[in-house]
């Protein structure tokens, strides 16, 4: 048996718009007991709406909390995997950078275009690594010729896109040749994406034929 004060408190909470499960939790009672006590209470439509609204809010809050826990678990897994990847690599030496760069050039570099030493990509991090890799061969940034290719949608914003590359690569505006504009039907080609849109950048090396031949020789050696 429960003291009458507990039952009266439960009835008061119910009439005030609390759900059966809320009352049971607050008063530390079995929800069946609370339901039995409150079964004869006639709630107004306003109170029923309040209980229903509160229930939906709590369900939504619970779902958000559950989703956030899943997200954090996923991010924690990513962080662990990334740390493991770094551990597997260990210390990075010049030869490691050389081989990674050769693989990068093999995939994205000019191999048949008029013996030019050129490389095209849209990822700023890859472009920066490529320039660092060229430095292993004594290529200075002043030796680079840049050409930007952007979507026609961003024609009026070419200065902003170019400014991004100049700032991130620490090159000069004078090193850029005329911009190329292309038309695509990609949904990403929207002005709202300007903050993340950087176009495609081609990097050529002045008088780079001899170095290109050496790179091609290295790639032939790897293939054999």
Please provide the count of β strands. Answer: 4
How far apart lie the N and C ends? 88 Å
Q: Ranges with pLDDT <50 over ≥5 residues?
A: none
What fraction, in percent, of the residue positions are helical?
55-70%
Supply the number of structural domains: 2
| Biggest sheet strand line-up | 1-4-2-3
Q: How do the helices and strands follow one another from N- to C-terminus?
A: HHHHHEHEHEEH
Rounded average pLDDT: 85
Largest sheet: 4 strands, mixed
The amount of beta strand, in percent, is 5-15%
Quaternary assembly: single chain
Radius of gyration: 33 Å
Q: Rough shape?
A: elongated
- Helix/strand structural class: alpha+beta
Provide structural commentary.
This protein is of the alpha+beta class and 224 residues long. It has 2 domains: 4-43; 94-223, no CATH class. It is built from 8 helices and 4 strands; from the N terminus they run αααααβαβαββα. Helix 2 (20-27) crosses helix 3 and helix 5 crosses helix 6. The longest helix is centred in the first third of the chain and has 45 residues, at 45-89. The radius of gyration is 33 Å and the shape is elongated.
Give me some keywords for this one.
alpha+beta; 2 domains; 8 helices; 57% helix
